[in-house]
């Protein structure tokens, strides 16, 4: 009887203990959640929501559909109409909407939307809107007499696509496709600027990453092996760019590299160059690579240093004591242990270089521009939706490259076995 009572008490105590532990764990989880809640809100407001809005804007533009309800309704009711020869009813709906645009002063917004895919449409719409209120049937004949461009099939393809608030047109433009009378087709070689800039940006970013790695590796090694007094001084020199304005650093490179700058003056003074043979190192790709390498170099040094400083020097000494040469020791002992730092620094520098636009804009000139500069141009002066589409394509390319990096040379594969 006593044993049964003891067993019952033990069971009750165990249940109470489990309940108390569950309550404590629940409180700890809630406390942890509230501690990270400000960070979650910050990421949501400054990262996820802007990216979501950008992706939405890349497929959304209601500049034409909002201003032309009659023609939009006609397109919905006649999805298979002949673009080569639109009927009278289509022109009647167009004239009605143009007259309404003139009254509400929305002609520019509608014309701008069509102008994104059919250049010259703004003036065409403004001219048509001014005359639409006085037109009489047959409207097709009147519109073609006003301007034969109203009968162009590509214009009707564009208006049909723009009659929907959501479209993939901006991605087609971003991949250098052009709207013709036969529909969307690949543009001529001279007109293919976006894909060229995408590949150029990725290539330049890869070159900058390799240069940063070659320059950063010996500096990070010195930081890891020098005495504390000397390594602290060297670390100050590495971090000094972080304490200097980006604009100041960029303009300093302009002063150094331009044709009448310090570097050219020095080369002329010591006789390596004639005054008429000064090097062109500014407002081209050379200036972009030099300035961006200087800006991004610390982002390669610091990850390498964080890995190198924990590598025991005894490993190298043991390899040499067993007969390994300095090169073999570096290649088979030291270098494999630095691979996580190389991978982290390279990924960080590459991603930062892909999205850089301030430095190329200041020192690159026409030849040194990257895709980010074109995105900035469209966002501030031209077509916000096209800028969003280009930015989304760049984001997708970076995510694909990151996925490939993780699959092929991920951190787990870099650990020593």
Topology diagram in text:
Elements: H1 2-57, H2 69-77, H3 88-104, H4 107-115, H5 121-132, H6 139-146, H7 153-162, H8 169-174, E1 177-180, E2 183-186, H9 194-225, H10 228-239, H11 246-257, H12 262-269, H13 285-308, H14 313-321, H15 326-354, H16 358-363, H17 371-381, H18 384-409, H19 411-414
Antiparallel strand pairs: 1-2
Helix pairs in contact: 1-18, 2-3, 3-5, 4-5, 9-10, 9-13, 9-15, 11-13, 13-15, 14-15, 15-18, 17-18
**How would you spell out the order of helices and strands?**
HHHHHHHHEEHHHHHHHHHHH
Shape: extended
Strand order of the largest sheet: 1-2
Mind summarizing the main beta sheet?
2 strands, antiparallel
Number of helices: 19
Q: Which parts are unreliable, with pLDDT below 50 for 5 consecutive residues or more?
A: 413-417
- Strand content of the residues, in percent? under 5%
What gap, in angstroms, lies between the N and C termini? 60 Å
Q: What is the CA-atom radius of gyration, in angstroms?
A: 32 Å
Mean pLDDT: 85
**Could you give the count of β-strands?**
2
Task: Provide a compact summary of the structure.
The protein has helices at residues 2-57, 69-77, 88-104, 107-115, 121-132, 139-146, 153-162, 169-174, 194-225, 228-239, 246-257, 262-269, 285-308, 313-321, 326-354, 358-363, 371-381, 384-409, 411-414, and strands spanning 177-180, 183-186. By secondary structure, the protein is mainly alpha-helical.
